[in-house]
Amino acid sequence: MSTSSPHRLTSSPDRFTRALSPEQRSSLLTVAHAANFPAGARLFDQGGNTSRFWVVRSGSVSMDVRVPGRQAAVVETVGPGELVGWSWLFRPYTWHFGAEARTPVRTDEFDAAAVRTLMEADPALASAMWQWVGQVLVHRLVSARIRLLDLYAPHGSGSRV
Question: Domains of the chain, with CATH numbers?
């Protein structure tokens, strides 16, 4: 459950705002609003349709992946200034992970389709967004791989040197 209210994004430097110029941030402001989640709230589930994404302002969100026959595995926890959700940028626009608020969370919520439209109209914004989301994506996938190996690989299954 989220509560939303109109507002303007803060200009505090974080990973998101450092990736974009002031003009690009202003452009994104037009399709964002505040959204808050209580601890334990699901932001989205793996396999669901992507219509928005978030930048955390305060609190923490756990990213998880379903594992057949087991409880979902937390692969990473993200905090202030970090992106929650990258699947909105890739067809077929379905979540590859799930996300849950670990603590009360304040976010900036973005309309994914509107951001994609802004990116189509502004190649410089598109390039900046692709680079930023690409860096997040690589980090998330490496974190997921390491976490899943930690949780489920047999002991001694690593490579021998």
Answer: 13-152 (2.60.120.10)
